[in-house]
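User: Show me a protein chain along with its predicted structure.
Assistant: Here is one chain, sequence first, then C-alpha cells.
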Amino acid sequence: MVGPSVYWLGLDENVIPDPSYPSKTRVLEIMGIVSAMRGTTIRSHTLGISFGNMLSVESSPGVYNQTAYEAIDFAILAARMYGIKLMIPLVDNYNWYHGGKYQFIGWDGFEWSGTGAAITPPDVGAHFYNTTSIVNMFTAYISEHLNHVNQYTGIAYKDDPTIMGWETGNELSAVIYADGPAPPEWTAHICGLIKSLAPNHLCVDGTYGFYPETGQLNVTEVDIFSDHFYPRDIARI
C-alpha cells in the first residue's frame, strides 16, 4: 500500500473562508491525482479528527453536527469510486483546526495554555489518557463516528471496506509536549473498542516514536505500528 497524506478531505483550512468544507471538485481532483500516480491509500486526519470547531462533527461535548458528515461521506464515496483505501486518525496530539486531545481536556474542565514545550501545566496532556471522564468522552465520539451511516453509500463507516484502518491518534508522542507517549493500556482500550465496532478494519497505534518502556509493540489489539521521521533540527513534530 502506498499513498499520500491528504489531511483536509473533511475540513479544509487552505481555502477562503478558512476553514471550510472542501469542494467536491477539489476532493475528486486529489483522488484522480493519487490514482494517476498509482497510489492505493490516503491518510486523512479530518475524516476522523473533527471536534471543537462549529464546522466539526462534534462541535461541543455530545453535540454532533450532521452537516459536517456530508463532506466526510462524499470523500469516502470518492475514494471508493477510485478504488483507494483510507487510513483515518481519530485524534490529534494538539488542537490545530480540526481538533485534538487538548479539546477534550478543556471540555472536562482542566485549564491549560500555551503551545508546544510551553504548554502549562506541562503534564496536563496526560489527563487525556488517565482521566476516566475524558476517556469516556473520547470513546463516545469513536462509537458515534464509526456507527455513522454514509448518506451516499448507505454503509456505516465501521462496515465500509474503503476504510482500511483507524489510527488511535496522530503523533501522540510528539516530543515537544511533556505528557509522554500514550500508555499501552489506553492504546489497548481504544484499539479494542475499534475492533469491537469494526472487526474487519485494522487498528494503527498512533503513538509514533519508539518508546520501549511503553510496551506498545506488545499490545495485541494493535495491527500496525508506524512512525514519522523528521530531521533532528525540525521546529515541530
